[in-house]
Amino acid sequence: MSNVLFDIPGPRARVRHRLYAVLGVAAVAAFVGFIVWRLAESGEFAARKWEWIQYKQVQEDLAAAVGNTLRAFALGAVLALAFGAVFAAGRLSDHKPVRVVAGFVVELFRAIPLLILMFMFYYGLPTLGVRMSPYMAVVLGLTLYNGSVLAEVFRAGIQALPKGQSEAAYALGMRKTQVMVLILLPQALRTMLPTIISQLVVLLKDTALGFLITYEELLNYARYIGSIYAFGDLDSQIFFYRPIIPTTIVVGAIYITLCLLLTLLANRLQKRQRRNRKIQAAPAEAVV
Questions:
Q1: Which one of 94, 120, 258, 287 is separated from 167 by 20 to 30 angstroms, measured CA to CA?
Q2: Which chain regions cross the lipid bilayer (predicted)?
Q3: What is the dotted CATH code of the domain comprising 49-268?
Q4: pLDDT tens, 205-215?
Q5: pTM (2 decimals)?
């Protein structure tokens, strides 16, 4: 049976696809192995290059940097979700002026690079007499840029719902605001949850741009540690210099862990919603 876009692969094609997959995995494994081998050859895995992480002050500062990253992410995510919901509703408004203004705002902040937004808030506003902390500049930049993207995600999710949902709500006498808040938006959130989580992962990684405006987040601290000329003990005369690669590996692992935890949390929420829907549907099925 053939599809409109492609033909279902036959036995030979399936064997060929498996061969391509094996070759691809082998190529990636060989590349990673080569990188690891080169790092080992250059002494990047030597114990002395990793001794910096045993210092208590380094551990405390690293934990504080992770906390600052999560602070910016948490507030930025909440505000971006609220911004996206409000402007998605604005773009779907029955009033043309509201639609035009909402569309202009969304397209404007979606088009401006996030880094420029942060520069505008941190370096531009002081010229107008408004001073802003690096934290707030990062949060506002994350909110406006990612909120604009989420507004389009919400709008697409709402428009993808069957029109019968809103028509039935209007028939019950509900107002448009009630229909949007109580009927359409919750369903759009469930439908678009994978896309929303993907954008939140992007938001989490975008916090790294804060180091360019001196926000003391994870990447900023990694740059500081990697640029220190020497760590060591004057009494024992043991020193090691500029642990750039080890710092990059540690910080990269922390970012990967945070993103994976966010994805796992989203998957658990999605599974829980599915179970709740099945439980709610069970009595109706029993009655029938």
A1: 287
A2: 20-40, 70-89, 101-123, 135-158, 179-202, 244-267
A3: 1.10.3720.10
A4: 999 999 999 89
A5: 0.79
